[in-house]
Amino acid sequence: MRILLQRVKSAEVRIRAESPESPTRVSGRIHAGYLLLVGFTHGDTDTELEWMTDKVICLRLFPDEEQRMNRDIQEHGGALLVVSQFTLYADVRKGRRPSFIDAAKPEPAEVLYNRFVMGLRQRGLQVETGEFGAMMDVELVNDGPVTILIERDAGPE
Predict the structure, then answer these.
(1) What's the gap between Cα 121 and its chain centre?
(2) Beta strands 62-63; 69-71: pairing state
(3) Active-site residue 126, yes or no?
(4) Catalytic residue among 41, 53, 85, 129
(5) Distance, CA of 99 to CA of 94 (rounded, Å)
(6) Which structural domains are found in the chain, ordered by start?
(7) How far apart are alpha carbons 54 and 150 in whole angstroms?
(8) Is 74 among the residues known to form the active site?
(9) CB proximity list for 79: less than 8 A, separation 6 or greater
């Protein structure tokens, strides 16, 4: 499982219209918090979901009174915008076209995505989302900038 975490002042995800006549619609919008681009690979389980949930919630990436990154998202009162992103598992070592062979298939990835979102919500956080599998436009104002790649390999610790 991989997450590209960006600390944001604001972020929004819009679902692209399927036809020119259809309007684009906002799926999720937050003010201060984290934008989480989330990708899954084969073999990811509840173990990875729980580890990632704890990691995201407990990382101290918000400033305290001395402007040191010393507060977690709950202490800061921030929200989360979670967007599925299978391209986090792109392999570009060979050729000019990325391979996505390491990305989980859509069906199991969607189940994992929904469980991850539910786990974050169960911890009392405000969680907004994109729409799994949709073409989306993501707009953000990165705060800092702070961008961190978090990765947890499937399997035993």
Answers:
(1) 14
(2) antiparallel
(3) no
(4) 85
(5) 9
(6) 2-144 (3.50.80.10)
(7) 12
(8) no
(9) 30, 31, 32, 33, 34, 125, 126, 127, 128
Give the gyration radius of the chain's Cα atoms.
16
Give the whole-angstrom CA distance, residue 133 versus residue 68: 37
User: Which residue has tokens 């990325």?
Assistant: 98
Contacts of residues 67-72 at CB distance under 8 Å and 24 or more positions apart, as own/partner, are 69/146
Q: Which of 87, 122, 129, 147 is catalytic?
A: 87
pLDDT in tens, 9-61: 999 999 988 777 778 899 999 999 999 999 999 999 999 999 999 999 999 99
pLDDT in tens, 101-126: 999 999 999 999 999 999 999 999 99
